[in-house]
Design a protein that fits this description.
Blueprint lengths: L4 E5 L2 H19 L7 E5 L2 H9 L3 H17 L4 E3 L9 H4 L10 H12 L3 E5 L2 H4 L3 H8 L3 E3 L3 H13 L8 H16 L4 E4 L17 E3 H13 L3
Helix pairs in contact: 1-10, 5-7, 5-10, 8-9
């Protein structure tokens, strides 16, 4: 018997990729067409963005906890959130949660350390990149990091919020990411965190100047591993 995975979603494209990865890669571990039971709940992205714009992390936490309680009622055993940005509310969420969580930045930091990386570039929304979500988890594993410049953060944020969350993928945006990641490479980064769950729809190891740490799929795989622990 595998554990029931609860997915606290925020933006649709990243959550869909995470869910799809659990289902598709579950078959390689469990047998043809098999995967752990999974339930997903999300409030409107617009409701989350209103909280983000006014720096209301209690409001973000309340939304996440609302989803958490619904998923607990549905029978979930543990929770994941395929959205890096709202992990800033985790210090409020975890002590009040009905279920345990996997933390996306911890999963990425563990993967980076196991790969032997030492300095990571962080990409994601402006809220995420300017936060301590990744620095705290990376530091615990002895990992250094670099952030894009403020202008580049704004450009990445525009691409995420105006394009990727709607499933819009543009070659011009790939070129922008390639330029920004090349700049992080010049600063000594040996890998880049795709720290928005939609970025892997656009960037990967084949088109990135640096090896990528795909936060979406890494979280999905960690959830699979957790669900299959006997």
């Amino acid at each position: 018997m595998s554990q029931h995975i609860g997915i606290v979603a925020c933006s649709a494209e990243g959550a869909a990729l995470c869910y799809r990865t659990i289902c598709v890669e579950g078959a390689a571990l469990m047998g043809a067409h098999d995967h752990p039971e999974a339930s997903l709940h999300t409030h409107s992205l617009a409701t989350y963005v209103k909280c983000l714009d006014r720096d209301d992390w209690q409001g973000v936490a309340d939304l996440m906890l609302s989803s958490a309680h619904k998923l607990a009622s549905a029978g979930a055993d543990f929770l994941i959130c395929p959205d890096n940005t709202i992990h800033q509310a985790m210090p409020i969420v975890v002590p009040n949660s009905p279920l345990p969580w996997l933390h996306i930045a911890e999963v990425v930091a563990q993967a980076a350390a196991s790969c032997g990386f030492s300095r990571l570039g962080i990409t994601g929304t402006r809220w995420l990149v300017e936060s301590n979500v990744y620095p705290e988890k990376l530091a615990a594993h002895g990992l250094d990091f670099r952030r894009p410049s403020p202008a580049d953060r704004a450009e990445i944020n525009r691409i995420i919020m105006d394009e990727l969350v709607y499933g819009v993928l543009r070659s011009e945006s790939v070129a922008i990411f390639q330029r920004i990641i090349s700049g992080l490479k010049a600063e000594g980064c040996d890998a880049v965190v795709l720290g928005c769950t939609e970025i892997p729809l656009l960037m990967n190891d084949e088109n990135s100047p640096l090896p990528t740490l795909d936060s979406t799929r890494l979280l999905a795989r960690a959830a699979l591993a957790r669900a299959l622990v006997s």
